[in-house]
Write a structure and sequence with these properties.
This protein has about 425 residues and is α+β, with helices and mostly antiparallel strands. About 50% of the residues lie in helices and about 10% in strands. It has a single domain, classed as Cytochrome P450 (Cytochrome p450, Orthogonal Bundle), CATH 1.10.630. The protein contains 15 helices and 12 strands. The strands form 4 sheets. The chain has a 5-stranded mixed β-sheet with strand order 1-2-8-5-3, with helices on both faces. The protein has a 3-stranded antiparallel β-sheet with strand order 4-12-9. It has a two-stranded antiparallel sheet with strand order 6-7. Helix 5 (about 110-135) runs antiparallel to helix 6 (about 140-155), helix 7 packs antiparallel against helix 8 (about 185-205) and helix 10 (about 230-260) crosses helix 15 (about 380-400).
């Protein structure tokens, strides 16, 4: 569900190849050319990228109290979209985190798994019709709507069906210009996000069904500053965005990779059938399917939704042999870290077997793989994400074979999360 997200994206800069126009490609090139720590934007504040496990630990874990999330882009997000768990700091963040954390506990995972199964079934009814008439589906559009509904039900106990198509369409147009109030798509999305979030809050209040062990229920019951009109809206916006967009990204790229690698898809489908027989994949089956987990892990290695994590240095620091002036932005990019050739052989190749090799897993240095972030700001929804992604992938794989219709390779785009630059069209047939 919610995977740790940061809104820090490298802007276009002189002398750095225009990182803002294609930040994933540019950061990957810079990381290969410039090493494990380098300046990726000039000007004020100066911005550094660290691309080495020890440096990642220094910034996100050991030195977490010396680095703030108050980067310029995060501040813009807090001002123009929502100021909640994603951007809050200090005592405010600790209060919010402790208030919400129980809603993401393992005891709630069976309920989430049930929601996943029900909503995948609803999606399958539409996909069956598309398959019957030979109409390709828009993979990312469908997975974002699916995950928006799952997120709304799991975190708020509200069915978002009346709004999910509108929400995902508007956000798809707005995310490339996130926080830029001069752009009309963003202004339209800002109003729509706030409106739909308020409708979710009102729908939840109207239920009066006693549920408190979800995020919105716990916030409503708190009776403190987190239960004000503005705070509830901001919490819903933050949880919805960081929940559905992130996991939808994982599912989109996972299914895309399986469509590109039918041998992997067939092997995985066969293993699922060996465990489940004729029934639908269930939560209790996941432990018996390490290859499914490896496919999800490899997808998040190549396409980590939280592709960049930014911090601001609160004081002068030194990382390796590099001096970091106070006020500088220091960023970690899981996208470049997960493709570092020192830690990942043949790093650009999709190979789930690398996560089946126990020795390689054991020998790989800590903090080379951080799809959920690291340190105290690690994703609050890790437990949910590790269930939702394999269940959705596995259940859809049980039902369908997928053939990529696009001509040529689909390129990733780093905005709020990693999304495809163009629609991914998939032809479906019964498995």
């Amino acid at each position: 569900m919610t995977i740790s997200i940061d809104t820090t994206a490298p802007p276009a800069t002189s002398g750095q190849g225009g990182a803002g126009r294609d930040p994933l490609r540019v950061l990957a090139i810079l990381a290969r050319r410039k090493g494990d720590i380098f300046v990726y934007t000039t000007g004020q504040p100066q911005s550094f990228l660290v691309n080495r496990p020890e440096y990642v630990r220094h910034v996100l874990v050991d030195g977490a109290d010396r680095y703030s999330k108050d980067t310029p882009i995060n501040a813009g997000f807090a001002t123009t979209i929502a100021n909640a768990l994603l951007t809050s700091e200090g005592a405010t963040w600790r209060r919010q985190r402790s208030l919400m954390q129980p809603a993401f506990s393992k005891r709630n995972i069976p309920a989430v798994a049930t929601i996943v199964g029900e909503q995948v079934g609803r999606l399958a009814a539409r996909w069956d019709q598309a398959a019957a008439i030979g109409a390709p589906i828009d993979l990312h559009a469908d997975t974002t709507q699916l995950m928006f509904r799952i997120t709304s039900l799991a975190l708020f106990h509200v069915d978002s069906e009346p709004w999910d198509a509108q929400m995902t369409d508007i956000l798809g147009k707005a995310l490339p210009v996130l926080t830029d109030v001069s752009q009309r798509p963003f202004r339209v999305a800002q109003i729509a996000i706030w409106d739909i979030s308020q409708r979710i809050v009102e729908a939840r209040k109207a239920q009066q069904n006693g549920h408190v062990d979800d995020v919105l229920g716990r916030l409503l019951q708190s009776g403190d500053i987190n239960a004000t009109h503005r705070a509830l809206r901001d919490h819903v916006v933050t949880m919805a965005l960081s929940g559905y967009e992130t996991t939808a990204s994982v599912i989109t790229w996972g299914l895309y990779m399986l469509a590109q690698h039918p041998d992997v898809a067939e092997q995985l489908r066969s293993q699922i059938a060996d465990v489940t027989g004729e029934r639908t994949l269930a939560l209790e089956d996941l432990r018996a399917l390490p290859y499914l987990n490896a496919v999800v892990k490899e997808t998040m290695r190549l396409y980590p939704p939280a592709w960049i994590i930014g911090r601001r240095a609160l004081e002068d620091d030194r990382i390796g042999e590099t001096d970091i002036p106070a006020g500088s932005v220091v960023a970690v990019s899981p996208y470049t870290l997960h493709r570092h050739p020192r830690y990942w052989p043949d790093p650009d190749r999709f190979d789930p077997r690398r996560f089946m090799d126990e020795r390689a897993e054991r020998d790989r240095p800590a903090f080379t793989y951080i799809p959920f972030g690291a340190g105290p700001r690690t994703c609050i929804g890790t437990n949910f994400a590790q269930v939702e992604a394999p269940l959705v992938l596995g259940q859809l794989l049980q039902r369908y074979r997928m053939r990529l219709v696009n001509d040529g390779e689909v390129q990733p785009q780093g905005i709020f999360v990693i999304v495809p630059q163009q629609p991914i069209h998939i032809a479906l047939s019964a498995a």
